[in-house]
DNA sequence: ACATAATCGAGACGGTACGTCAGGTCTTCCC
DNA sequence: GGGAAGACCTGACGTACCGTCTCGATTATGT
């Protein structure tokens, strides 16, 4: 039996939208929950009712945004195209990704969420491009690529075409 | 011509020691500059006179600690032994390294310091083990290894023997 | 040994002045500590460092204000003139006095402060006008007068000339 | 024409009972409407439908409780017995009475209710004991007694036998 | 010797975000 | 329409930490 007033989906969307907009405008660190609430026309309590804090909120706001790939999986996508798309999206969202990964280092719960919503799905995507490899090799390649990308992000270096070529060259050697 | 009271080296050491102790006890995030000053028997101003903030202070406190290997470089050290030592030290200091890299994402100045004092020196160390490779390959290997290690740290996975073997296997394939 | 930066008296006065002004402008209940801090150009913490809360702060701001009687005690002041002056001051400050006494009902510490800083001094003043009475009668009269005044305040009835005459008639009968 | 479901008297009694219990357990200030609703097995809206707020609710809950004296008025009751009964009841309910009078200072509507339901009825009771006095004297005595009692309450001093004797001595002198 | 100048411990200060709490309203379904 | 449940907006609260500042005391150099 579900009694009481149901959660207002419009409010939820307003909050996520406001979060996205504000984080893009001013950067993760400069945004406050109070400000998000104000922009969303919501109460602060409503935010804290549904998210444990700024980190989780921003993660939600951007994980839906990052996953905008329609995934019209015809056949197995190529590794290179996947990687290109991967880097394109990551470049756009780079400041947010860096901030989220950083924040996650101070917040175990956020760390788990980040893994489940961002890190693992992207790894799985890569893995799906490697069905022609032996299982052990697959893990190896996925780890190396993921490591290269995240390191690049954290060191604030560009995820551009040069990087993609570099990464593919590495993979080719394995 | 330098007049005025000279810097007290004992105070500097007290502060670094107190920082180390407190960060190990309670973790980076839970420590405050005020607390460090109190423990060191120092004034807050003395800290801010010599360091720009908590991040740089902790970096100093631990970069001297991480690099305590005397580096009795006879000849070129082996890659595997270097990597093992590397991981051993990183495992001990893992929570601090994670926190520093995280904090650096919000603080460009700290980011630069971190690169200069921790990331690059370790990369150079690795590079020095690869003098038998072609220059292009060297960069490739250093990048991959560094990426694997930092990713491992940020994802809070162990830098144990299994990881070392895994990393060496990757390098062997390149 | 008094070390450290000494308390800034100017800040203290700014806070008290801002408190007074705001309470007179908008009434006790509508004023917040945040607002007082902003108006005084002070930090909220500075307020909480020196006062336990809004109540004590307002009490301080107005107890110095209520006691503006120069007390050029030549001889024993007459009861009637004291009572007139008393009511004049209380009429002005009535909303604040009501609010303070009300707040004190929820806050034992404020209650004690209120007694010590406002209630008892005023009682002593009245007592000083009754040196020609027997001690027991003195207490009786002081209690009755004080009771009449506070009741009047709490019931939000005017402390005007009519009330003074009424009160004096009562005392005359005792 | 009154259509729709009629008010549920059982719910009303549950709410008043829960209010009484909670206020006696934890004190007026520590009780919230949400809590009262929960204890009464009622919805918050049901409370706000019938009472303007916590103050009025508590007033109702206790005014029926304070006036539980059956008032078997044979003839004119004596002043002293009335005062004794008065103080006995007030002593029991002292914390609630203090809180209500305090709250009323911030809430004009509650102030009016408090006067009508508690202050004036008690005054009338006293007045009824003084039919042998001249009208002007009656008001005087009622005011003095009422003032003494409320002052005593607000200053958190006991309304015990000693106080009653004191009050009667005052009245005797008038 | 004595002024100059910088360091040091202590702690007050302005500022800003935090997460919590209570009040009172609104929205659902059920009777 | 009454009622239970509970989401919602609003706005104050008191705390925490940051980095700066202002004291008095100390310790070096330069005259």
Explain the overall architecture.
4 copies of one chain form a homotetramer. Chain A has 174 residues and is mainly α. Chain A folds into 2 domains: 9-50, Orthogonal Bundle (Arc Repressor Mutant, subunit A); 63-173, Orthogonal Bundle (Tetracycline Repressor, domain 2). Chain A is built from 8 helices and no strands. In chain A, α1 (9-26) crosses α2. The mean pLDDT of chain A is 93. Chain A binds chain B through residues 29, 98-99, 101-106, 111, 115, 119, 140, 143-144, 146-148, 150-152, 154-156, 166, 169-170, 173-174, and chain B through 28-29, 98-99, 101-106, 111, 115, 119, 140, 143-144, 146-148, 150-152, 154-156, 166, 169-170, 173-174.
What's the end-to-end separation of chain A, in Å?
56 Å
Work out the strand percent of chain A.
under 5%
Shape of chain A: elongated
CATH classification class of the largest domain in chain A: Mainly Alpha
The largest pleated sheet of chain A is described as: none
The CATH homologous superfamily of the largest domain in chain A corresponds to Tetracycline Repressor, domain 2
Number of strands of chain A: 0
Estimate nothing, just give the exact number of structural domains of chain A: 2
Structural class of chain A: mainly alpha
Percent helix of chain A: over 70%
Q: Oligomerization state of this entry? A: homotetramer
Query: Are there runs of chain A of 5+ residues with pLDDT below 50, and where?
Result: none
Order of helices and strands of chain A: HHHHHHHH
Question: Could you report the average pLDDT of chain A, rounded to the nearest whole number?
Answer: 93
Q: Assign the CATH topology of the largest domain in chain A.
A: Tetracycline Repressor, domain 2
Largest interface (C-beta under 8 Å): A-B, 29 and 30 residues
């Amino acid at each position: 039996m579900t009694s009481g007033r149901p959660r207002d989906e419009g409010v939820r969307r307003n909050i996520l939208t406001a979060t996205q907009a504000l984080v893009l405008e001013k950067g993760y660190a400069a945004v406050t929950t109070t400000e998000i609430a104000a922009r969303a026309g919501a109460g602060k309590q409503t935010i804290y009712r549904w998210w444990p804090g700024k980190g989780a909120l921003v993660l939600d706001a951007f994980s839906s945004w990052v996953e905008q790939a329609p995934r019209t999986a015809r056949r197995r996508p190529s590794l290179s195209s996947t990687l290109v798309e991967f880097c394109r999206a990551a470049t756009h969202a780079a400041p947010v990704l860096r901030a989220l990964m950083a924040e996650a280092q101070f917040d175990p719960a956020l760390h788990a969420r980040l893994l489940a919503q961002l890190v693992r799905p992207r790894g799985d995507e890569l893995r799906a491009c490697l069905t022609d490899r032996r299982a052990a090799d697959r893990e190896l390649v996925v780890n190396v690529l993921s490591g290269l990308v995240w390191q690049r992000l954290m060191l604030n270096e560009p995820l551009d075409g040069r990087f993609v070529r570099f990464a593919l060259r590495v993979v080719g050697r394995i």
